[in-house]
């Protein structure tokens, strides 16, 4: 499975309640987004993953995965891919054992090399905005033809197009369409509107 071919926009979610998961997933689907990364930053993350795993048409992954034992927990809950802020070989190897794609964060060529050595073809760049934005990815990707990058951290509606213009960037990720304030207030129509806008920008 290629996570980056699933959808050009990958929302990064922090759930404050697992009850938010299904309405959130339905709002994303209504806006044309069929993939979601639910982070383990809150206790609602794991049950939220389990809830979204049961939503037809949605591919749910886990984010903020930093330890190998987290991989087992999220895969057992139904996660179909695993995103990390950085590169940890034990996490990558646990993902391989469990048969799920890993999307580790990279910031430097050395980290990319570690991922290539583990057989990965897709990585996340984090925090993309602070690292230098699209120019950083253009330079970082040059020695790694065929490798695909997903920028995350500081990406927004105004900048996503500049990243997606790079041949090595098939998808971007970010939280702007799924902010905790929107989820807490149940503003599902706004989630759908921002999702549709992001998809239109990505595909337009
Ligand atoms: C994160 O760390 O939450 C993701 O990279 C998304 O970052 P963002 O909130 O800047 O979009």
Automatic annotation (TrEMBL):
The keyword Lyase applies. GO terms for molecular function: 2-dehydro-3-deoxy-phosphogluconate aldolase activity. It catalyses: 2-dehydro-3-deoxy-6-phospho-D-gluconate = D-glyceraldehyde 3-phosphate + pyruvate. InterPro entries: Aldlse_KDPG_KHG (IPR000887), Aldolase_TIM (IPR013785), KDPG/KHG_AS_1 (IPR031337). Keywords: Carbohydrate metabolism, Lyase. Its EC number is 4.1.2.14. Pathway: Carbohydrate acid metabolism; 2-dehydro-3-deoxy-D-gluconate degradation; D-glyceraldehyde 3-phosphate and pyruvate from 2-dehydro-3-deoxy-D-gluconate: step 2/2. It is an enzyme of class 4 (lyase). Homotrimer. Belongs to the KHG/KDPG aldolase family. PANTHER family: 2-DEHYDRO-3-DEOXY-6-PHOSPHOGALACTONATE ALDOLASE-RELATED (PTHR30246:SF1), 2-KETO-3-DEOXY-6-PHOSPHOGLUCONATE ALDOLASE (PTHR30246). This is 2-dehydro-3-deoxy-phosphogluconate aldolase. It comes from Klenkia marina.
């Amino acid at each position: 499975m290629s996570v980056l071919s699933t959808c050009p926009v990958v929302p990064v979610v922090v759930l404050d309640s697992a009850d938010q998961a299904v309405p959130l997933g339905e709002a994303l689907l209504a806006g044309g987004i069929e993939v979601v990364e639910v982070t383990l930053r809150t206790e609602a993350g794991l049950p939220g993953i389990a809830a979204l795993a049961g939503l037809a048409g949605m591919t749910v992954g886990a984010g903020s995965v930093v330890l190998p034992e987290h991989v087992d927990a999220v895969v057992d809950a139904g996660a179909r891919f695993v995103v990390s802020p950085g590169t940890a070989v034990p996490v990558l190897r646990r993902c391989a054992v469990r048969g799920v794609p890993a999307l580790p964060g990279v910031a430097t060529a050395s980290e990319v090399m570690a991922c290539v050595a583990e057989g990965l073809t897709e990585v996340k760049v984090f925090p993309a905005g602070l690292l230098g934005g699209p120019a950083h990815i253009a330079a970082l990707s040059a020695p790694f033809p065929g490798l695909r990058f997903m920028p995350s951290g500081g990406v927004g509606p105004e900048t996503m197009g500049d990243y997606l213009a790079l041949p090595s960037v098939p998808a971007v990720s970010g939280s702007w369409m799924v902010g905790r304030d929107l989820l807490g207030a149940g503003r599902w129509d706004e989630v759908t509107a921002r999702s549709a806008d992001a998809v239109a920008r990505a595909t337009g």
